[in-house]
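2024-03-11 09:14:02 DEBUG pipeline.ingest accepted 1 chain
2024-03-11 09:14:02 DEBUG pipeline.ingest length=407
2024-03-11 09:14:03 DEBUG pipeline.predict start
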Amino acid sequence: MINGADTAFILAAAGLVLLMTPGLALFYAGMVRGKNVLGTIMQSFFMIALISIEWVYLGYSMSFGPDVGGIIGDLSWFALNGVTNAPSSEYATTIPQTLFMIYQCMFAIITPALITGAFAERVRFVPFLIFSLFWAILVYNPVCHWVWGAGGWLGKMGVYDFAGGLVVHVTCGAAALAAVLVIGPRRGYGRQSFMPHNLPMTLIGTGLLWFGWFGFNGGSALAANGVAVTAFVATHLAGMAGMFMWVVMEWITQGKATTLGAASGAIAGLATVTPAAGFVGPNSAIIIGCLAGVICYGAVNLKSRLKLDDSLDVVGIHGVGGIIGTLCLGIFASTAINPEGVDGLLAGNALQLGKQAFGVIVVGGYTLVVSWILLKIIHSTIGLRVHEDAEVVGLDSTEHTETAYNN
């Protein structure tokens, strides 16, 4: 039977997760140069339209439809055929299935939007849309089914992911790495400074993302219950711990703290706790956030040594954070916190850590390979990258005939 409280809660959570995409647009836009603000915003914001359409006609059925060999859902729910306001027998049994569908749609929207930070300031808009559409079909939908779909093979073997460490963060991080390798660095990378043009905009985006993350993680309980509260608390504590440790690392290594560092640390903590949020207690969440602040900080600083132009640190924050969080689930998870969850290493179940590591390898490897092939095909046929002259002028003018600031 439909539960009114659960329904109201997930309606609100779906709205919060949708808010994360324009929040991400502002977060990214503040870190690019002024000539690329609108181009960066459009890459995230337009995903709301593109992926919503894909989700209605293909994505939801491929991700959550009747299982085919543990690999993918069939297309019996094409165009939401048979998806009604009655509860599903397999997913979120106390809310309308239509609500579960639209809640999951918000996750599908933000995942390709996250990838855009890796190649900010140098990719053409239409080829980017083609990549995003096919990436959703070939990567996001299958991985979502493997982990969260009824009958999905990773879920059946006991790989856990509460709110998207594998499905969202590892996939976007691996795709971001593939994009950096295929597209190459920005013109002048390593020879000139690429300073953020508006850090207050980035801080506003951080606040919107943090706020939306309560729906992202808390809503993944799919009911207004104690697990949702557990995830809500873990989300906030990991976010603040990530911020704290990132700033501490800046003090230690640079002698001063930065606003960008505080924002980056918060996002690192929030991303890293995502797969474990509903399975761990407050102290474990703080440890996870601290690990995120230290390890993701190191990963972001490593990119310059490797000469990888991950423009807005997608690999170092979301990819590395998703890996850490997925592994931490295998360490800190406890059925004393969530009886419907699993015990991790510290609760006497060392096997779970192995399962989580296997999930990281499979999802990360599959995403990296498929993303690289898809990017290579598009790049070698219609071309992903803007012309050098257009890169100098800026994407706002050359791709959208607009300007963010009239001087």
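2024-03-11 09:14:41 DEBUG pipeline.report The longest strand covers residues 67-68.
2024-03-11 09:14:41 DEBUG pipeline.predict end
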